[in-house]
Design brief:
177 residues; alpha+beta; NADH Oxidase; 5 strands; globular; binds flavin mononucleotide
Length: 177
Amino acid sequence: METVMLKDALTVIRERKSVRNYTGEPVSKKDIEEILRAAMAAPAAVHMEPWKFIIVTDKLKLKSLADGLPFAKMLTNAGTGIVVCTVPEEAAMGTEEFAILDAVCASENILLAAEALGLGAVWTAVYPNKEMMDFVRKELNIPANVIPLNVIPVGHPADEEKAKDKYDAKNIHWEKW
Ligand SMILES: Cc1cc2nc3c(=O)[nH]c(=O)nc-3n(C[C@H](O)[C@H](O)[C@H](O)COP(=O)(O)O)c2cc1C
């Protein structure tokens, strides 16, 4: 069995990148549970946790999601797809804005946890495209009050990819130091 050396938090953050090519080898349930634990460790406004996670491993379902989502073709080769959803009524002030903000935090934790475990993942867009949201709702029997935010394929990376260096001092404004 392969042993993954765990990296420290800042290294994981720096080395996270979108991975779109996978070997096709299934991801273990233990790793998915670890990733979901990380997802639910995210901050959420007023300690309301409006997020829900749908775990898709069925090959035919992954293919039908890939067929209907224009930028998620890589789902067919990932062992797993995590659909991050959020429920406005369960969010702070009962609003969509807080529901989305909280689910975005959980999504980033998913991407970071995948990197930490030596897996590859990528955010593929659903929200705020209404057609894509309705398509995912229909495919996965998601009720109308639940917003599918994204679909995150998780798989074993096929290649050794490097993260982009996106640090840009121009984006920082030191108000006073
Ligand atoms: C809101 C959002 C939507 C995205 N949608 C897609 C998508 O549909 N398909 C895809 O391959 N990547 C998608 N990405 C990933 C971005 O393309 C990627 O994060 C960006 O190119 C930077 O590369 P990096 O993640 O490797 O740093 C999305 C990212 C975000 C935050």
